[in-house]
Amino acid sequence: MRASLRRLASAAQELPMPLSVQEASVQLIPPIPLYRRLLRAHRLLPAEMRFMGDSYVKSEFRLTRKTDNPLHIIAFLSQWKIYLDEVEKSSGSPWRGKKLEMEKLDAMSKEQVGQLYELMHATKDVWKSYVTST
């Protein structure tokens, strides 16, 4: 092996490995392909949940379209990517969602907590009908 290739190989071995699979899967996807994949993933959901999910994704992407802050953009895309991974992972079985961690709830602004509360009430009837039908 030539010296330059040997140096490249040793440099590649020194790169830090990701701490977890979830961190490795949080590779950012550009907004439009991510948006399309989210809508495609919602096709596996029941009709009511799909309609609600599609509406929510469309409104969130529309509201965030004019954001200039790179930190907000990265956080937005990475959180939607995590959600996409969860929905795609449950393909074939009914998606149950997961509980919100207290650290994330504490980090939210009052406006975000208010939106989450409104979302909880808007989804309550849909969730009850979904649980009783399965």
UniProtKB/TrEMBL annotation:
Belongs to the complex I LYR family. SDHAF3 subfamily. Interacts with the iron-sulfur protein subunit within the SDH catalytic dimer. Keywords: Chaperone, Mitochondrion, Transit peptide. Plays an essential role in the assembly of succinate dehydrogenase (SDH), an enzyme complex (also referred to as respiratory complex II) that is a component of both the tricarboxylic acid (TCA) cycle and the mitochondrial electron transport chain, and which couples the oxidation of succinate to fumarate with the reduction of ubiquinone (coenzyme Q) to ubiquinol. Promotes maturation of the iron-sulfur protein subunit of the SDH catalytic dimer, protecting it from the deleterious effects of oxidants. May act together with SDHAF1. Its main location: mitochondrion. PANTHER family: DC11 ACN9 HOMOLOG, SUCCINATE DEHYDROGENASE ASSEMBLY FACTOR 3, MITOCHONDRIAL. It comes from the Eukaryota. InterPro entries: SDHAF3/Sdh7. Coiled coil: none annotated. One of its GO terms (biological process) is mitochondrial respiratory chain complex II assembly. It is found in: Mitochondrion matrix. One of its GO terms (cellular component) is mitochondrial matrix. The keyword Transit peptide applies. This is Succinate dehydrogenase assembly factor 3. It comes from Papiliotrema laurentii.
